[in-house]
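Hi U.,

Before I forget, here's the chain from the pilot set. I'm dumping it here mostly so it's searchable later in email.
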Amino acid sequence: MKNQREMNPSNLRITIILTAIALILAIPLITMQFTNEVNWTLSDFVVMGILLLSTGLAIELVMRNLKTGTSRTILLVIILLALFLIWAELAVGIFGTPFAGS
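Structure:
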């Protein structure tokens, strides 16, 4: 019988994902206490939390279903590329969509 404190690798990865999201969102929260250059609203934190969580869960889905291979690497790169493009669009509006407020 397994010890109750032992976690299977999938649950451990989800715990790591949630911890990483909390740490990433803590950066602007802490920075806002020391400078006026960062000014996030609650909606900014919610949108970024959803973006990070969906990216983390998509990566977890790929990691669980594809054990090795080129297709796994390609899917992970596509997921990360989508994260960075959406993040850049929301931050500065590189594509000029209405989501960036332009």
